[in-house]
Amidase
Amino acid sequence: MQDWLTMTAADLGRGIKAGEIGPLALTSCYLEAIDAHPLKDRIYSQVTHDRALAEAEAAQERADLGLRRSLLDGVPLSWKDLFDSAGTATESGSDLLKGRVPDHDAAVLRNTTLMGAVCLGKTHMSELAFSGLGFNPIKETPPCVNDQRAAPGGSSSGAAASVAFGLAAAGIGSDTGGSVRIPSAWNDLVGLKTTAGRIAQEGVVPLCLKFDTIGPLARSVEDAGLLLGVLEGTTGPDLRNPAPLKGRRFADLQTVVQNDLDPQVAAAHRAALDRLRQAGAEIVPLEVPELEEAMGLSPILYTTEAYGLWKDVIEAAPHLMYAEILERFRSGAQFSGSDYVAAWGKLEQCRMAWDQAAAGFDAVLSPVSPIMPPNLDRLQSDHDFYVQSNLLALRNTRIGNLMGLCALSLPTGTPSCGLQVLGQPDCEEALLRTGAAIEMALA
């Protein structure tokens, strides 16, 4: 049974289908592992034992009758603490929402439950999802699987830790500027950022409505595809036999993303590209000068919307917030409505330039994060280091959000160094097929 804790969600589903794994025994195995883990309280904010066992019993009955609803029917998942779950506290990592207990599940949790997946509980996260580091002194800071003295990546920090430490088959997170991809990279997982607007946001605590997206953190690209399916109430694409990389054409993005790379990150990126070339892919350097302007618009676009959504709640009790997060929210007050509208107009022009530059490539590649996971003690004691680390952590991933793309984070084989694969808007299935082929080359 211990092997179950490291298997992919897809393999667990196939085991259930073959009658080799029972959903109730599987869920009990995960719950026992959570309860026994010394770091469980840093990873899970709530463990929903009763719900998980009830859902597992129902999955067991369906499996016995041959009536499974999806390959993931009976597979246990974790959920970031911003997805509403009926009767369970959902606080988005903030004491501003302490004691908030919704009456209904979020739409994606309803869909996933209807497709048979089991809800293990809620995972810790950056406060109100407004940090790429995963450091949360207000609630809990989950561990990084490669260095427990370092930040785990955020804001879907607990989602990543739950999978990396064998306490969930996969986790569901959100990504507004990199919040699925950064913790996936720093914990050696696969993370999928979906296109904004593709997956329903009903019942999800917002940060920036125009940039918020939902996506899985998983052990394989196949898992990510299956999870995309159940989040939407479908079966997802079949990724078991990806087409070879020979003849594929990828762009190695140069603008912005290659600046100031940590030496380990730079070496991991070069090695990953070498393996893709060895597998037959063509890799072409790509400059997109308009990205410089788009990145400069980020403070206006993100902080204005975030503070606009949260101003009344924040200013009613600002003392409840971590000072660094509070300062970042309040920075949105310096911009006017006309600044915000003008910034969106400029961003749309940058997006058109990106579309033209990226046309003709199967995907655009870059390091997920230019830095390695930063030290937690220094983040807490050094303001300038915190700000610099947060901005750098989010720099490369933010391009996917600003350009309105779907994107993957894939492990490179170097701990905490991920390869970012940027696709076209609303082309998740094509991105996943490409990602599955890249995953094989990097294995």
User: Anything to note?
Assistant: The chain has 15 helices and eleven strands. Residues 2-231 form a domain with the Amidase signature (AS) enzymes fold (CATH 3.90.1300.10). The longest helix spans residues 290-316. Residues 75 and 117 are 5 Å apart (CA to CA).
